[in-house]
Amino acid sequence: MFKRLVLSILILVFGVAMVGMASADTVDMTESECNDADNYWYEDTCYTTENEKLNAQIVSLNDRIDELLGMLEEEEKEEQEEKEQEEQPQQAPPILCEGVSFDRPLKLGTRGEDVKCLQAMLNEKLDEPLAKKGPGSPGNETDYFGPLTKEGVKRFQKKYEQDILAPWNLSRGTGFVGGRTREKLNRFVKRKIEQEQEQEREKEQEDKEDEEQQEQEEQTEEDLTYCDTDDDCTLVNENCCGCENGGGKKCINKEFEESWKSELNCEEKEDIACPMVYLCDDLPSGCECVDNTCQTIE
Questions:
Q1: Where are the beta strands (DSSP E) in the chain?
Q2: Strands 45-47 and 26-27
Q3: pLDDT in tens, 154-199
Q4: Highest mean pLDDT range out of 41-55, 64-78, 128-142?
Q5: Which residue, among 244, 234, 237, 240, has the nearest Cα to 281 in the 3D structure?
Q6: Where does the pLDDT of residue 94 fall: very low under 50, low under 70, confident under 90, or very high at 90 and above?
Q7: Contact 160, 88 (CB under 8 A)
Q8: What is the pLDDT of residues 101-155, one digit of tens each?
C-alpha cells in the first residue's frame, strides 16, 4: 500500500504540472541540427521550446509510473493468490509424478500439475522441505508456483550446480525452471517412476510367491492328514519338545510317518527352545478319521 500511495502522489504531481501545457511542437531534424538551431533534443525528437521538451519528459515519466503501477498490481495479485492458496483446506495430492514431464518454463505465478510434481521432487531431493507444515510441505504439495517454490528451486539449482549452473557460469540459483533445471528434474522423475514401478513389480511377485507358498502348505497339510479309515491315521510328535516341555501330538497319515520324523530330525537338534509348560496329562489318546481327515481323540 505504501508503494501504491507514493506512485499515486507522483502521478497527481505530474498531472498537475501538465495542466495547461499544449501538445508539444516538434521539428524534423537530426540531433546536431536541433542543437545548432538552439532547439531541445530529447529521446530522438527535436522540440522547439524547453517547455515542450519538459512536457515530453513528464509524459515519458508518467508512462513509466503506469508501468510500475502495473507491476505493483501484478505483485499484489500474486500475493493475494498465495494467501488464498494458503487459506484453502489442505489436501494430500498424490506425490507420484507419473504422466508428468517438465516441458515448459516454470516461474513465479505458474500453475499446473507439473508445479505440484516440482514441489514433490524438491521436498524429496532437498536437505530441507519447502515447508515443514501447510501448503508446500511433504504430502501437501500444491499446483501454485509461489515464493516458497522459487526459493526451493534456487536451493535445488545450487545443490546440482555442476549440471545446472556451471554450464552458464553461474554460482547462484535463479529460481527459474529453465532447460537445464528441467532436464535434471526429468531424469529424477524418470528414475523415481522406474523405481516405483520396480517396487510394484517386486511386491506383486512377493504376493504371488506368498500365495503360492500358502497354497502349497495348505495342499501339503491336506495330503499329510488325508485318510479313508481310522487305520490310516497315526499319532506323532508335533515337534521336538517333550510333553513335559510344551510338546504336543498330531495325527497324520501313516504313509508320512517316517518322512515326518526325518523332517523333524530331533536326534541331531541341540539346544531346542521349548516352553516350560507341562502338557503330558492333556495329550490326545489317539486318532480317528473324520471326513477324510486324521484328527486327534481327546
A1: 26-27, 40-42, 45-47, 233-237, 249-253, 286-290, 293-297
A2: antiparallel
A3: 999 999 999 999 999 999 999 999 999 999 999 998 888 888 889 8
A4: 128-142
A5: 244
A6: very low
A7: no
A8: 999 999 999 999 999 999 999 999 999 999 999 999 999 999 999 999 999 999 9
> Measured between alpha carbons, how far is 180 from 36 in angstroms, rounded to an integer?
54
Number of Cβ within 10 Å of residue 103's Cβ equals: 8
Which long-range contacts does 263-271 make (Cβ < 8 Å, 24+ apart)? 264/237, 264/239, 264/240, 266/237, 266/240, 269/240
Edge-first strand listing for the sheet containing 26-27: 26-27, 45-47, 40-42
Contact criterion met (CB below 8 Å) for 141 and 120: yes
Question: At which residue does the C-alpha cell 498490481 appear?
Answer: 73
Distances (CA, A) of 151 to 144, 195, 263: 13, 28, 64
Which amino acid belongs to residue 67? E
Query: Which residue in 7, 165, 193 sits closest to 100, CA to CA?
Result: 193
